[in-house]
Specification:
Helix content: 40-55%
Strand content: 5-15%
CATH class of the largest domain: Alpha Beta
Shape: globular
Radius of gyration: 22 Å
Structural class: alpha/beta
Number of helices: 13
Number of strands: 7
């Protein structure tokens, strides 16, 4: 972007469902340039309030479980019902170069051509939790553009791979049959956050293994307290390649949505998500300000050397850095 966009016109075009403007708007909110950040904040403030209730679904699973294939098949089912679907796919970034492949639109070739679907791949960057730094802003944009269902596809299961659960209404964990003890392949923390567990690739020679895996997961989930009152986590089978089980998954998600609304979801849930967003923004912005403070750079460098050499504990060094930062800003 070489010049300031007309924020009012951009907001209006996004609200009118202009796909090209929507893509430009997401690019704007993902930018780290200070001027773009100011424009992005103005754009988000200028968006009209959404009049349609939307559903935010997080989908995660280990690499190779077939997330993209599943989302393409499931997305095709949703659009066949007349729903408009946005897919925010997060690709892992290289820790050395920062680059990402961003190949989800290639893997979801049919869905990417569907006029009722919008697919946006974004790099995870250095963000933890399997999501991109500005996934929340992207969700606000696609909802303002009239997309009724938003799917956030995360990087993959890992130790911090459940931050997405704090920004969506429901969390779907995708697993695959086969290969040893299924329960060892998924962290307990992920299972505790799952609202629905789907055993994918339940077709052909894998049908028996898929049924066995589903039984194992149902037994394991009996030992975990459900996170949503009134909802028992379901374990379903699906074959994305054959299009089987997709209708049942959507019906289960609709039942969950009804439970969430009965529990005070909807606006209350969005408010809670907004509060978490607020404090994460404060945390990220404070860290960015601290690292950008050139006057503190020598102190930070010395304390890092002390910690590395074992002359100072990390906690003591952190307190000294924070104390110096707060003294400079007050």
């Amino acid at each position: 972007m070489t010049k300031d966009p007309d924020i009012t016109a951009m907001a209006a075009a996004v609200a009118a469902g202009d796909r090209r403007t929507l893509a430009r708007a997401i690019t704007l909110v993902e930018s780290t340039r200070p001027d773009h950040r100011r424009q992005a904040e103005a754009l988000l403030a200028a968006l009209p309030s959404s009049t349609k209730p939307s559903i935010r679904i997080g989908i995660t699973g280990a690499p190779g479980v077939g997330k993209s294939t599943f989302i393409e098949a499931f997305g095709g089912h949703l659009t066949s019902l007349g729903l408009r679907l946005a897919v925010l796919a997060v690709d892992p970034s290289s820790s050395r170069t920062g680059g990402s492949i961003l190949g989800d639109k290639t893997r979801m070739e049919d869905l990417s051509r569907n006029p009722n679907a919008f697919i946006r791949p974004s790099p995870a960057g250095r963000s933890l939790g399997g999501v991109a730094r500005r996934t929340r802003e992207a969700m606000a944009l696609v909802e303002a553009a009239g997309y009724e269902v938003t799917i956030v596809e995360t990087v993959g299961v890992g130790q911090s791979e459940y931050a997405v659960a704090d920004m969506v209404d429901m969390f779907l964990l995708l697993v695959a049959p086969g290969g040893g003890d299924e329960l060892q392949g998924i962290k307990r923390g992920i299972m505790e956050l799952a609202d629905l567990l789907v055993v994918n690739k339940a077709d052909g020679a894998f049908v028996a293994a898929a049924n066995h895996a589903a039984a194992d997961y149902r037994n394991a989930l009996n030992l975990i307290r459900p996170k949503t009152p009134g909802w028992t986590v379901e374990v379903l089978l699906a074959s994305a390649l054959q299009g089987q089980g997709l209708a049942e998954i959507w019906q289960a998600l609709q039942r969950l949505q009804a439970v969430l609304v009965a529990n005070g979801g909807g606006p209350a849930s969005r408010a809670a998500q907004a509060m978490r967003w607020l404090w994460e923004e404060i945390q990220d912005d404070l860290m960015a300000e601290l690292k950008a403070d050139k006057a503190l750079a020598p102190l930070i460098k010395d304390l890092e050397a002390d910690v590395e050499a074992g002359r100072r504990t990390p906690s003591a060094a952190a307190r000294e850095i924070l104390a110096a930062f707060l003294q400079r800003t007050t």
